[in-house]
## 1
Amino acid sequence: MNDTASSEDDALIDAIERFLAGEVRPVAIALEQADEYPKAIVEQMRDMGLFGAIIPEAYGGLGLSAQTYARLIETIAAEWMSLSGIINSHLIMASAVLRFGTEAQKEYFLPRFARAELRGGIALTEPDCGTDLQAIRTVARREGEHYLVNGAKTWITNGLHGNCFALLVKTDPKADPRHRGMSLFIAEKGPGFSVPRKLPKLGYRGIDTVEMLFQDYRIPAERLVGGVEGRGLQQILGGLELGRINVAARGVGVARSAYEEALSYSQQRKTFGKPICEHQAIQLKLADMATRVQAARLLVDSAARAYDAGRRCDLEAGMAKLFATEAAMENAAESLRIHGAYGYSREVRVERLYRDAPLLAIGEGTNEMQRLIIARRLLDAAAPRQQ
């Protein structure tokens, strides 16, 4: 990265930090507790170009590298994790078009994604399948120049306030292997596309998560990503590499925030005549928390570098996602312990971090699945080469 790019990236992160401190921090607790969508904040994010963060400048985006994008997401998640999800799901959809779409699809969708004229996310998960995406049952049947879609999706981020989604379907339910019958469409809301309900959640509140229903929903054949059936699973998995880097960066942000809250509180709270940071038990916790943050950040940076270089990075992204999200879980719990009863109060940020962190260990592929991905990649690398 050249010095000019680095300077511009630093300036962007500084601007985001000022925005978060001035516009988000004063209202985040109230919005989160009310589970209220932050419309005014989202409009400001749109004006800052964040919905086009990784979209190339040629298509109207900011053209950020994955490294800078990860820094951006860490910064946002450290203040309020829900905001990072509003742009992440949207940019996974954009990444799928950028990497696998036809040139006509790129020219049509990417500028609209960057302006947030079309904004949304990814519609993958269904009531009876999460990690096993090949088990989806939503079907798209070709009828002339359109496809007719029927099925249901659940746990879809941005589903209520968004208007466009990367929709994974079966175009050939009888295909063997199953992935050869899966296709990806860019689906705008319209007749036959409904949102029956918003799902209540433990954490990650303020952002809308919904169920979707498709009943004879007609979508033009030109919205099939890449223009060829049967490639949908590979296309969305390619997008999820960026998604896992994002979730890992969120983990760093939550872990960092939990650590910083604990460090600050430990210097103020006194027991037995001295600040609790002077007690060895608290010092041990703080040391572990700070180490987790730094180690997680380095793993995220390694995955982002691999992504930027165009290399396969499911191993690096899996490691980053696994470690950083577990760091978020551990740091949130330790921070709450350090805060004592005060940390159990809904009036402080630590309580929210404690509720937000578990989602990170589940979303974009559970951490159990990440371990399997990591192990399989390691075993593939260690397998004897055939002569």
## 2
Amino acid sequence: MTPPSPSSPPPPPAPYPSPPRHPWGRFFGHLLGAYGLLALTALLFLAFSLALPGTFPTLDNVSAVLSGQSIPAMLALGATIPIATGKFDLSIGYGLGLAHVMTMQLVVAEGWPWPLACLVVVLGGAAVGAVNGVVVEFAKIDSFIATLGTGSIMYAFTGWITDGARIVPGPHGLPDAFTALYDSRFLGLPVSAFYVLALTAVLWLVLERLPLGRYLYVIGSNARAADLVGIPSRRYVIYAFTGSGLVVGIAGVLLAAQQQTGNPSVGMDYLLPAFVGALLGSTAIRPGRANALGTLVAVTVLAVGLAGIGQLGARFWVTPLFNGSTLLLAVGLAGYAARRQLRQRRTQPSRTPRQPPGATP
């Protein structure tokens, strides 16, 4: 072995290893990061139950909360899919308004059978989502700008269809089977809550257990690395936006069954709560990445908080204040969770590769 030449720089000093954390500290830190939001939900419910013992911890109140928050929960789950790839779909509020107006237009004004109208609207939502994905990936437009532009176009179509007025059913109203999609009950609870649970289970299966979900997470973590390992990023990002549009179409049908009128301006009211739930959900269950169970927990926190402050007599401006503040908190916590996860990966000791047979040390 030849000695180093005098002109060669000295080797850098070896970094001092970071002191190992106690295993109990890591364990409790993981529990707090993964299930802290779930514990907060229980604490909020307990606090409001003690403050409002006659109205809050009742089956009627729970049913009202579940029914009123089902649409925001579905939109939050739909927004979670593109977020897993590092993209954002700001058109979901406009898409919800267009989907529910189209449902009312086809059933009331055009006289279509309601199952056919619902099917067309849901498939149309998926098609709009695919268009969003194509615009983002092939036109190379940032997802914020692209989906805001397509959302504005959808809002224009909504106004053109309704001419700025509401779509009101005739004297016979809507078919009972159609309104039962939202108004019926199962096991004593609103059936819409079980739609949310079913959608959460499907998204959890797709994102956590199927190759499609793993590909989406790899793309969201490092799109360049995904391309290098052979994952077609463009195709899977389009799949993510298509899934988001499909969920928005389903939510639009349910919103039409709930409100039973076509309101062209209703969709934007759901945009902020949906993103609050999706971003806050990325700090729970699987901190650092968007996940279906975390989104469900986050939406539950928001539902309990809004119901509690509403029954305490809060003014009308408290709800947007609560949503906006929670959104800022959610973004901050999501960024912190992602940075914490990255630091943990960097501080993990690397495995020494095994020597091939016959190699000399």
## 3
Amino acid sequence: MKEFNVNGAVLQCYPLTAAQRIHNYTIRFSAHQVLNIGTGFYVQIELNHDKLREAIKLAYQQFDSMRIRFLKDEDDTVYQYIVPNDDRQVPFIDFSDWNEEDAHKEMERWTAVPFERFHSPMNYIAIIRLPGGYNGIYLKVDHMTMDSSSLIMFDEYVLKTYCALCYGTEMPKPMMSYIKALEKDLEYEAGSPAQKRDEEFWMNEITKSEPIYTDFNGMGRLITQRRENNNPDQRCAMVVSKNPEAAIAVYRLEKEPSDRLMQFCLDYQIPMATLLLMGLRTILSKFNNDEKDVSVKSCVARRGTLLEKKSGGTRIHFFPIRTVIEPTQTFLEGLHIIQAEQNKLFRHANFDPIDYTIRRARHWKNPPGASYESLSLTYQPMTLQRQENEMPDIKYKTMWYTNGVAGQPLYLTVMHRAEDNGLNFNFEYRKDAVTESEMEYLYYYICRALFRGIEDPNRTIGEIFDWV
């Protein structure tokens, strides 16, 4: 922690956490808008704008991380501090006379505008009126200050506060201190015994054996780069690009098949993230000449304690889930292999992912920008679920808006829909790496693998290969 004079006031400022340094590292090589997250939450009723603004203001006070500001010192090191209040006005934007698709495109345009990085608010919120009687809020945040879990908690806090103000329901419980969670992260990073144990684990993982790149479009990328580099044994592939232009494709799995997946997880005590990884790695294996050694970059939310869950901010770390599964092994055996690897990852997930990535590349002598993982997977179990004592039974919907760029070829986020708890598969893809039709093809085969597997989890992986 350091003290800085900011506009005449001496403030306590804190270093970035490892989760924040991931994003700060990203914008060294990509447009700053890559960190923008744009969301919309809309209900099909008229809203009292004064009460909604009051609810938003109260939520700002509860979420310290919505009041984060950044600064740089003379050595270009980035620090963060919290301002005590945020008195910005919340504008009202009326799109009711627009075509709804055009309204959402306009909000995508907003999402592509980067924030001023230093001594400036890192979020923007507006009250929105859409065609068809839908009303709600658009929210844009910088990923260095909030992640998807924080955003969902913020929207939920606004919703519950609004209902308390309008309908007399209970106010939501207070949030917890972002600074306390930040200080715990910094204590861990200051050479703690836990950090040393995690370092030992990850260094052992790195040196076991070299992984191999498996692409969501098959062997073509790796084969081409082997030929270009005159290296037939090359096992990593270059995944960065000078053209980060990106888009989002969303595929909606209906409620009934979504329920079947969730019921399978209940019956076999398998986490949904494990099942999704199994479907994904099965198809990566199939697409890459039945390769048994498959790695996927997995998101770890790191919200195990009450403080971590209720303090907002950004806490996501990414690490590879590497599994070697034989075609003679069953779908259920594969799930247990993945779950065992996930459990190890979760126990050591506080380690700095950037440090891990640099050390792995150095050990295997990989060039900057090369990877063994072609995509990342996030499963977001949280969703806004209406409680019976909160609001009338009304229709509502959520939106995630693309910021127009991406730092990696493909990022799959699987989330539950607010209206029916079914699953949405959100593919953020870089346009130079994949087309939307290829996304649809990948989604189709992931679903085929999943449902072939849960129909009979004692089927072998080889049999599922033949069936999909």
